[in-house]
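Look over this record before class:
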Amino acid sequence: MPVIRSISGLRATLNDGLDEELIYKYTYAFSKILHPGAIVIGRDGRPSGLWIENIVRKTLQEAGREVHLLGVVPTPTVQLMVEHSDATGGIIITASHNPSEWNGLKFIDDSGVFLNSEWNRILWDEVDSIKTINSIKVEDKSDIIYGNAIENHIDRILTLPFLAEPVIFEKLEQRNLKVVVDAVNSSGSKAIPMLLEKLGCNVIKLYCDESGIFPHTPEPLPENLTGLAEAVKVNNADIGIAVDPDADRLVLIDETGNPIGEENTIVLSVESALEMRHSFHGYSDFNVVVNHSTTRRVEDIADKYGTKVFRSPVGEINVVNKMKEVKALIGGEGSGGVILPACHYGRDSLVGTALILSLIASKNTTLSGLVKQLPYYEMKKSKKQFSGSIDTIINKLIMEFHDGVPLREDGIKINFKDKWVHLRASNTEPIVRVIAEAKSNTEVNELIERSMKYIL
C-alpha cells in the first residue's frame, strides 16, 4: 500500500509502509523545524499506537525535546492542550477514519492547528533530506504525563458562553436525554460519555471499551452504524452518537434509528451557534466558514439569521485559515467536523455534541424535529481509485458542464443556480472524490454519472 502524505498528515499501512524508519524521519524532521519547547503526544487507541508512541517519544528525546504524553485521547484534546499551553507543537498518532491496518501521524503547530501547505512543504523537504538513521539510543528520560487532559477539555466546553447560562443546563437536566454512544472502542470512549453525563444525559455505552479494536468499519457512515441505529431503537433512546477513531468527526442517529446524515452535523451546529450568537462576545459579524464540499443548507441557515457564509478548500487547516481571516463564529466540514474558536481551532466532536444537544433542549424538540425543519436537498458522495493527475479530468468537466460556473480553488467545483458538483483528489487516500447536491435524486445521479465517466 502507498504511503500518503498530505495537508492532513502522514498515513500508511502497517508492515508494508509504516515502519520505524519512516516514523523516525517524520518525527525528527518535525522537531527540527519547530521552535524550542515541549511537544505534546496523543494517540487514538489503535493497538499499533503504543508502538508508534514509543518510537515518537524516543525520537523526540534524542532531539532534546521535552515530551508531554496524553495517552489515548481525541485529536481535538491534543489540539486544545497545545493551543492553551506553552507547547511548541503536537503529534497525534492516528489514521482517523481509515481501517485498523492503517496508522499515521498528524502534526500541529504551537497554535494547536494543523500545518498549512507552506509548513508541510518545509516538513517534507526536511524528511526527504534524511537519508539514513541510526538506532534510537537515548537515555530514557521522564516524560510529563497529563492524565487529566480529557477532563480539562470537557471543563473548557462547559465554560463556553452558551453553556455558562444556567437556562441551557436546566433544560438539559430536565430533558435527561437518553444517548447511545458508538466510539468504535477508540479515543472517544471516555470523553463522549463523560461530557454527556456532565450535560445531564443518561448514557448507554455501545462500543466504548478503549481497546482500539474496531467492532465495524470505523468511518461513521450510515452503512457502518447499523448496530448503533438498532441500539437506539431497542433502548428507546433520544439520540445515537457516533465518532471516528480520533473523535474529531460527529455523526448522529435520531430517536427513530434514522441516521440524519453527516452533513447535518455542521448544519445543526451552525444553527445552534447562531441561535445563541449574542452570548458570544467580541464578534462584529457572525460569519460562518465551511468547505466547498459541504451542503448548501449552511447558507440557508445563515440567511435565516442574516449572516454570511465563506467557503474554503477541503481540509481542516484550510477551513481554519479562512475562519481566522473572516473572524468566523463557527465553521467546519460536512464530514461531521465542527470548529468553534471560542473553545479552540480544531474539529471537535465534543463541541458539536454540546452545541446540538443545547439546540434540542432550547427548542424543546427532538433530533428528527430539528432535521425536518431544514431545507430539502439530495446529496451523493462517490469515490474511485485514482493516483494520477486530475488536471485532464478537470478540463473535461469544464467542457462537460459548460452551462455552470467553474471554481478551481479545490479540484473543480461547478456551481449552478440550485445544484453543484465537486471533484477533487482526496487528502487522505489514493482516490478521487465526487460530491453532488441538488433538489432531486435524479439530478444528483446525473451530475455524478457525468463526472465519474472521466475518471479512468
